[in-house]
Amino acid sequence: MQRLPGCTDEEWALRCQLAECYHLVDYMGWTETIFNHISARLPGPAHHYLVNPFGLNYTEVTPANLLKVDLDGHKLEDSPYDGNPAGFALHAAIHAARSDVQCVIHTHTTPLSAVVQKQAGFDYNSFYGAQLYGRVGYHSFEGITLFAEEKERMVASLGDKHILVLRNHGIAVAEGSIARTFFLLWTVQRAAEIQCAAGALPGPDTPLPEAIKTRCMELTAMLIREDDFANKFFNAMVRKMHAERGPSW
């Protein structure tokens, strides 16, 4: 695919990786038809970011058709597409407030939606759940996230964490690179799947001691701070997807 005119090497590489991330989320079965959104912040002080054109399937996203928008959701380059208004409040709020975050992924798969509907949220007692201990913020449901007035409250709910539970809705995960964010999403998804499966079985769960949950969280956080680890995981998943589906575009 030909690079967009005037696009720097750095931006084009980010566009390619973000487009692959969209295809991976579809490949994993985590899409919600044309809804939900993944964003990646571009380098620079303006906090401009890339996001999907609304109305396209995730498999139709390419490096070239990703939208470049500002924190108000205004397009910064010509495009026949518009963004999803429901995504701007969430993504803009996090990108504006958290300089350590480059990528935000919002999903509401069935297991995740089930867990975040429960008052207790994540229980942290599985192998994957323990890795999330102390890393989750909770935000009360205020309806579809369309309005700027909710931004401050969402940011406050997230705090310095990297997983935001949108109660009765879904989740947003945010990390310092696309690969790290995708790995975190995979971990959260697995935790939700196992929690739902365990909840369907009779008998009490075996609770993990707080010290063990804390240690699991710290070790996982240490691993994903290493971009090499996250990139290996991301690139392996891209290769697997391409082996089964062919090139993404």
TrEMBL record:
Domain Class II aldolase/adducin N-terminal: 16-196
Molecular-function GO term, any one: actin filament binding
One cellular component term from this protein's GO annotations in UniProt: cytoskeleton
Gene3D superfamilies per record: Class II aldolase/adducin N-terminal domain
Domain of life where this protein originates: Bacteria
Classification via InterPro entries: Aldolase-II_Adducin_sf, Aldolase_II/adducin_N, Aldolase_II/adducin_N_sf
SMART domains assigned to the protein according to its UniProt record, in alphabetical order: Aldolase_II
Family classification: Belongs to the aldolase class II family.
The protein's name in its UniProt record: Class II aldolase/adducin family protein
